[in-house]
Amino acid sequence: MSEDRDATDDHAPEAGTRYDQARWTDDGQYEPLLAEKDSTEVAVGDDAPLPDDLTRDSLELPDLSEPELARHYTRLSGMNYGVDSGPFPLGSCTMKYNPKFTERVAALPAAAVHPDRSATSVQGTLELQAELQGYLGRIGGMDAVTLQPPAGAAGEFTGIRIAAAYHEANGDDRTEVVIPDSAHGTNFATAAMAGFDVVELPSAEDGRVDIGALEAAVGEDTAALMLTNPNTLGLFERDIEEIAEIVHDAGGLLYYDGANLNALLGRARPGDMGFDVMHYNVHKTFATPHGGGGPGAGPVGVTEELAAFLPTPHVRQQADGSGYERYEPERSIGKVHGFSGNWLVLVRAFAYIARLGDAGLADASARAVLNANYLASRIDYEVPYGPFHHEFVASAGEQDAADAAKRMLDYGVHPPTTKWPEIVDEALMTEPTEAEGKGSLDDLAAAFDAVAAEDDATLDAAPERTAARRIDQVSAAREPRLSWHALEE
Ligand SMILES: *Cc1c(COP(=O)(O)O)cnc(C)c1O
Predict the structure, then answer these.
(1) Per-position DSSP letters for 228-245, written without gaps between them
(2) Where are the compositionally biased (Basic and acidic residues) regions (predicted)?
(3) Which helix (H) or strand (E) element contains residue 10?
(4) Is the minimum distance from the CB of 231 to ligand 1 under 6 angstroms?
(5) Is the pLDDT confidence value at 46 over 60?
């Protein structure tokens, strides 16, 4: 098949890694679904304790041997791209390589505990939760941490709800949340969903918070400022102490979006910078493969003044030190997710932090920053803002960033995040992470440069060497067909 492909391919990559993604049929169709391969009507019992209209008499199931099944999934995996295939420099998402030992720990039979079991029968689980709360608190400089929110966005919502409850408890009616224009879209959505008016803060010339604009934006209506530090351009907010003072003097709280914590691990703490509440994207910073939208976890840390508002149930060591217990914090905002959130993601985070320790975490952030700076220094695309930390935003210049990104797939590189933040024209937001070695970074740079030198026609036609070519992204998002039946219809 690859000979065929060479014959039809006039845009074979000339530099960087040559890449061919698996394709399993010649006619443009993909590996067939199991139901298309072979299926059998299987009778099902009628003893299910469910209403009749929710049950059926027979079910069509694939009738395949084990080798047929194993090959099907192996073929599908070859048509996919993930952190085990090659570098995944998707800026802001921190798609770091996930060490296999964290998977082994999460797969231990003892990790799979039913969340409804009594506290006395799951003391080990509660101890792990309490320890992880402690680890995260120490890493972020926060006094108390809830593990419940199931994603970064859910952590934001939880944190802003806590801020709202705090102001309300003080009899303080505040209606606005201030957010820089470089922030992630979830920040704006969070503030709106929590019932606040969003005040968008324009960035200064250097890409950071504009102190003058901040002073003008905050006041007696300000409930909180939401800030990512380093921001989405990878820039550290050098004036963070002054920023904190301005917000606090106005009676507002400072919210830290923890998505970029990979830049600061073991080196600087949001709590020390003056932040009152933060989320951790543990799936970004502390292992867990999260491509394709999940699963994740977004624990929230708060200072002492806000601890009483944390979601319920919370976990703590019993006062007499004899064991661990679940309890409802005094002024809890309630539940934001079932039980303790996405538990096995939290187990992975615990294993990762415990294994690396203080020195390992500090080393990870140092390498993440070094790698981003090395890669940026090697590529031909312009990087307008700096000095940056764990990620940088290059500009594709005259090229369309999304087309350039599609072409990178042909070189075996997962594309960077594109067209965001909007401060940079045709943005290529790139985060190589700490796990890539020099050879891998050199290959990445070669791929970027090869794409930078290509013409629009080539970029328009890309990708050519992947299992799926251009996907209709709008229809995929707006009219998803998520079941075999929907596809049949
Ligand atoms: C990923 C991200 C979020 C949202 O986190 P999810 O875990 O994807 O919900 C928020 N802010 C920034 C800067 C991010 O990169």
Answers:
(1) ESS-TTS---TTHHHHHH
(2) 1-13
(3) none
(4) no
(5) yes
Q: Is 31 in the pocket of ligand 1 (CB under 6 A)?
A: no
In angstroms and rounded to an integer, the radius of gyration of the C-alpha atoms of the chain is 25
Report the distance separating Cα 456 and Cα 99, nearest Å: 39
Ligand 1: residue whose CA is nearest its atom 11: 184
| CA distances from residue 334 to 163, 165, 194, 281 in whole angstroms, order as listed | 14, 11, 14, 21
pLDDT 10s digits, 320-339: 999 999 999 999 999 999 98
* Domain(s) of CATH 3.90.1150.10: residues in the chain: 358-478
The best mutation among 88, 90, 92, 158 to test binding of ligand 1, ranked by most ligand atoms within 8 Å of the C-beta, falls on 92
203-206 long-range contacts, Cβ below 8 Å, gap at least 24? 203/423, 206/235, 206/385
CB atoms within 10 A of CB 83: 18
- Note the pLDDT tens digit of each residue in 354-412: 999 999 999 999 999 999 999 999 999 999 999 999 999 999 999 999 999 999 999 99
In whole angstroms, what is the distance from residue 319 CA to residue 115 CA?
Answer: 23
446's tokens:
């070669």
H/E element, 69: helix 66-78
Tokens of 3: 């000979």
For ligand 1, is residue 92 a contact (CB within 6 Å)?
A: yes
Our answer on whether the CB atom of 153 is closer than 6 Å to any ligand 1 atom is: yes
Instruction: Choose the CATH number for 358-478 among 3.40.640.10, 3.90.1150.10, 3.30.300.20, 3.30.1330.10.
Output: 3.90.1150.10
CA of 119 to the centre of ligand 1 (A): 32
Q: Is the CB of 263 under 6 A from ligand 1?
A: no
Mutate which of 226, 257, 336 for ligand 1? The one with the most ligand atoms within 8 Å of its CB, which is 257
Architecture in CATH of 101-355: 3-Layer(aba) Sandwich (3.40)
Q: Could you tell me the two tokens for 473?
A: 């992204």
Distance CA 115, CA 221 (A): 41
Separation between Cα atoms, residue 414 and residue 87, nearest integer Å: 6
In the 8-state DSSP scheme, what is residue 203?
B
Residue 187: closest CA among 145, 142, 232, 143? 232
